[in-house]
Design a protein that fits this description.
The complex is a heterodimer of chains A (about 525) and B (about 350).
Chain A lengths: L17 E12 L2 E12 L3 E5 L6 H9 L6 E6 L2 E2 L5 H6 L2 E4 L11 H5 L14 H15 L14 H14 L4 E5 L7 H16 L3 E5 L3 H7 L2 E6 L2 E7 L5 H9 L3 H4 L10 E10 L3 E9 L3 E6 L5 H9 L6 E6 L2 E2 L5 H7 L1 E4 L3 H5 L6 H6 L7 E2 L2 E2 L1 H14 L16 H13 L5 E5 L7 H16 L3 E5 L3 H7 L2 E6 L2 E7 L5 H9 L7
Parallel strand pairs in A: 3-8, 3-9, 6-7, 7-8, 13-20, 13-21, 16-19, 19-20
Antiparallel strand pairs in A: 1-2, 1-4, 4-5, 9-10, 11-12, 11-14, 14-15, 17-18, 21-22
Helix pairs in contact in A: 4-5
Chain B lengths: L30 H7 L1 H19 L6 H26 L7 H17 L4 H25 L4 H20 L9 H8 L11 H17 L1 H11 L1 H6 L4 H26 L11 H11 L11 H20 L4 H42 L1
Helix pairs in contact in B: 2-13, 3-8, 3-9, 3-11, 3-12, 3-13, 4-5, 4-6, 4-11, 5-6, 5-11, 8-9, 12-13, 12-14
Chain lengths: ~525, ~350
């Protein structure tokens, strides 16, 4: 934990010293390999980008740096010294500060109190000196060149300002490495520019910055070097000047899209779901689309564009203010998932652990949860029929588990996802909404899930798929709807959908700056 | 499964473990074996072991008189434990049950003393319990308030209403035939006649929990309300009806209490909620929700009941009695946590070892 002073490359800054290096770090959660080879080195005085698809292992790597996860193996050095963090405090003490997409400030405390929380400067009699705190916070903001009043409460600050406060906190902690996990996801153009200005000035003073982003224009604009990850593994590190966006994308995806996402040709039938002018204040606006039998329609867009929210409203989990949903010819009652299920709609949610499955319940019980009413005769559940149904469906989907009676939490991510799918397929649906079908699933099972979805479409089930993985969207979908900031900004057919057209519709002109 | 890390980017990606059997293949513990080894089964074994021990060592324990008094004593707890089991399985709690029983008792006394027909008195008392349950259910299920806070409030509120209703008085002159019926026995077995009704209540809740779609939903709610709502389970409605059922059964317990002791008072059954919750937890129901069974809870109620009875027969003081109950409860709550902590520790150690082996 303790560091030698040699790592302190001062503001004058030779920019070569590795402020932090992680080599071949691995992390598993039960049977799930979250990180197989986490490797990155951050030099003092550089901005280093970490890119990769969702599920590439970026956030696991960040959590290791932050001291939240302990790597199972691998070498971790800060300033040349081998370190082993037991908790977040150790990481902070070593000079690493992590700024998350959604900062976690205490809303009722003042800005200055938030910066010095847990290590408030003491005045006379050992009491907290508010004046010192406010003065020092003011100095920090002056250094950063941002006008924030240290005495106001954190409540009501924009996310951008909250991030600046987190950065100020990091500086006051004398952080040598600053990790920013998708900091720009919720920022407007002007705010992004201000954040970048702050980041550059810190770099020039010798701080090493790890910058995680999905937006290539930002990565290429800001960063000195780029490390690419894929499927939990380190792929390569490049100097930004030496590579192109296309090369990075190829390394991120790393495989032939068509081969991995086998959408078989299915006969497209009648319209199953028709959504007309669906709106919910502040969440999404004027959403209209339809999905036909045998068709896979993908909802693409950035995280936070409102895709999941639309799906939840369609399924009846969330309310909506205006619009109409027709399902198989009749209007669907709002706010009633049971009605949607009875009519033949299934929903595979994004958060498998919280929403898709009852993790502590057995495989069998999870599969038959959707069937519980159908399995009952005269109000009583037929135990034999229940077991048979669970057995049949776990066999059909090749669910690998020790026993049907084991809790689903003991299964790997891919097998858990199969249980979720089994649960909905067991009730013979006409439409399946699948939110992030392969999130947190290893590559082997991924293609199995893709084949399964494509197979379902082939049997005439209408599929509405939400995915943040571009290759998945392009490989699977018959039609792509792109959402941005709560609105559908493009509808592309299979021929017209390519990485550029989808990303353009998902990102362009966001925040109103060029 | 655990691969060595590699320096190149082209190493095979982690893939699913193909050596594991399919879930559809019968393996591991099947239904019967699971029932025999479950947490609730331990309570059942403990009950049987204790009954045998008591029958041998304590004079007069193995007799119809014992059966009679023991059952008469545990009936209120046994009744209320049924809906309480379902409520705790959904991850909630109802602390107001004893106060509802007290309120019912007070109401019975006043109405009977006022000259009302006894049939009508019983019906109105039962409805009062239902209304009290609906009030709890409204606050918890409809408004979404935390059940612990709500029922601590209604615990005081309903007991207060009982006091307002009947004051410091006691009504004792209930019809002789009725009170005699409540203490009568089925022939020479020593089993109270009212057990027929109690068994009906037990069967009702047992079937509801273990053999209906509604019951399946309760377990799911207990583990994850969010996941439950995603399969169309109406969490709020389920909870509402559980509190109504709890109110109704608490009223039944209040009526039983009044007629068995031939005394309608405002402080009847006071403190009973803790005895009920203790028995339910001892019976293997998880206070965190999701786990539990009616047979286990019956065993829990009978274990505490017979333990108390035996200690009293052995002239052990009440202080020891309360202490023993408390210890039992703590052991029953702590034991599963310790068990799972040990399993977790073993698992972590195994993973660590396999990693050091492959990476060295």
């Amino acid at each position: 934990m303790q560091q030698t002073d040699s790592s302190r490359s001062g503001p004058s800054g030779e920019r070569s010293g590795p402020a932090l290096s992680l080599s071949h770090a691995a992390k598993t959660f039960g049977p799930v390999v979250a990180l197989a080879d986490g490797t990155v080195d951050i030099r003092a005085g550089e901005i280093h980008a970490l890119v990769g698809e969702n599920g590439a292992g970026k956030s696991t790597l960040v959590k290791i740096l932050a001291g939240l996860h302990h790597p199972d193996s691998g070498d971790f050095r800060v300033g040349g010294e081998s370190v082993q963090f037991r908790n977040v405090g150790d990481s902070k003490a070593a000079g690493i500060s992590v700024i998350y997409q959604e900062p976690t400030l205490f809303p009722d405390l003042s800005v200055a109190e938030n910066i010095f929380v847990g290590r408030q400067p003491k005045g006379r009699f050992g009491l907290i000196s508010k004046a010192t705190m406010v003065r020092e916070a003011g100095l920090l903001f002056e250094r950063l060149g941002v006008p924030i009043d240290p005495t106001r409460t954190a409540e009501g600050l924009s996310i951008a300002d909250q991030q600046i406060i987190e950065i100020a906190k990091a500086i006051s902690l004398d952080a040598k490495v600053l990790v920013m996990d998708e900091p720009t996801a919720a920022l407007s153009g002007v705010e992004v520019e201000r954040l970048f200005a702050v980041a550059r000035s810190l770099r020039d003073k010798g701080t090493g910055i790890l910058f995680i982003s999905h937006r290539f224009d930002e990565v290429f604009d800001l960063c000195d070097r780029i490390t690419v990850m894929r499927d939990g593994r380190y792929i390569a590190t490049h100097r930004t000047a030496d590579v192109t966006v296309a090369e990075i994308v190829r390394e991120m995806v790393g495989r032939d899209i068509e081969a991995l996402f086998p959408k078989t040709v299915a006969e497209i039938g009648d319209t199953v779901l028709k959504v007309d002018g669906l709106s919910r204040a502040g969440v999404f606006r004027d959403i209209s689309f339809d999905v036909r039998a045998g068709e896979i329609v993908a909802l693409a867009g950035l995280v936070g564009a409102g895709r999941t929210e639309v799906a939840r409203a369609v399924f009846g989990i969330d309310p909506y203010d205006a619009g109409k949903i027709s399902f198989r010819g009749s209007t669907l009652k709002p706010r009633d998932p049971q009605a949607a299920i009875t009519a033949g709609m299934g929903f595979v949610p994004e958060d498998r652990r919280k929403q898709g499955l009852v993790m502590n319940l057995s495989v069998a019980r999870n599969i038959t949860l959707t069937l519980r009413n159908k399995l009952a005769t005269a109000g009583l559940i037929n135990g034999a029929a229940e077991r048979r149904a669970a057995q049949e469906w776990s066999k059909r989907l090749q669910v690998k588990a020790g026993s049907q009676e084991h809790a689903v939490s003991t299964l790997s991510g891919g097998n858990q996802q199969k249980v979720v799918l089994a649960k909905w397929l067991a009730m013979d649906p006409h439409l399946l909404i699948i939110d992030e079908p392969t999130r947190g699933i290893d590559v082997g099972t991924k293609s199995e899930v893709h084949r399964l979805i494509s197979d379902l479409a082939g049997r005439g089930i209408a599929i509405l798929m939400i995915s943040s993985e571009l290759p998945e969207v392009l490989g699977m979908a018959d039609r792509v709807l792109v959402m941005r900031e709560g609105r559908i900004t493009a509808e592309l057919d299979r021929a017209g959908a390519n990485p550029e057209s989808v990303m353009h519709a998902a990102t362009s002109s966001s925040g109103g700056t060029p | 499964m655990s691969e060595t890390t590699s320096t190149t980017g082209t190493a095979p990606a982690p893939v699913a473990d193909n050596t594991k059997p399919l879930a559809s293949e019968p393996k591991g513990k099947t239904g019967a074996a699971r029932i025999l080894a479950g947490r609730d089964a331990i309570t059942i074994y403990a009950l049987i072991a204790f009954l045998i021990y008591a029958a041998i060592t304590i004079p007069r324990f193995a007799s119809p008189v014992t059966t009679g008094f023991l059952l008469l004593d545990v009936i209120p707890v046994l009744l209320i434990a049924m809906p309480m089991t379902l409520i705790i399985i959904t991850g909630e709690i109802d602390l107001s049950v004893a106060s509802i029983a007290g309120l019912t008792s007070a109401l019975m006394g006043v109405l009977w003393a006022g000259g009302m027909d006894i049939g009508l008195v019983l019906a109105i008392s039962l409805l009062a319990g239902v209304a009290a349950g609906m009030f709890n259910g409204f606050l918890i299920a409809v408004l979404g308030l935390p059940s612990l806070a709500v029922t601590i409030g209604t615990l005081a509120l309903f007991r207060g209403l009982a006091l307002v209703t009947i004051g410091d008085n006691a009504v004792a002159n209930f019809p002789k035939a009725l009170t005699a019926f409540f203490t009568s026995k089925l022939g020479g077995t020593g089993i109270p006649t009212v057990m027929i009704g109690v068994v009906a209540v037990i069967v009702f809740f047992g079937v509801l929990l273990h053999f209906t779609p509604f019951g399946r939903g309760l377990f799911a709610i207990g583990y994850s309300k969010e996941a439950a709502s995603f399969v169309g389970i109406n969490v709020a409605r389920s909870k509402f009806w559980l509190y109504v059922a709890s109110g109704a059964v608490s009223a039944l317990a209040g009526i039983y209490w009044t007629l068995r002791y031939t005394s309608a008072r405002s402080d009847n059954a006071s403190g009973l909620e803790l005895a009920v919750i203790a028995a339910v937890l001892l019976g293997g129901v998880s206070i965190f929700g999701g786990k539990g069974s009616i047979p286990g809870v019956i065993a829990g109620v009978l274990l505490i009941g017979s333990l108390n009875y035996a200690l009293r027969l052995a002239r052990v003081s009440d202080v020891v009695l309360i202490t023993v109950t408390g210890l039992l409860l703590i052991v029953s709550v702590v034991a599963p946590s310790v068990g799972s902590a040990i399993r977790q520790w073993r698992h972590t150690r195994r993973v660590r070892r396999s990693f050091t082996r492959t990476t060295n």
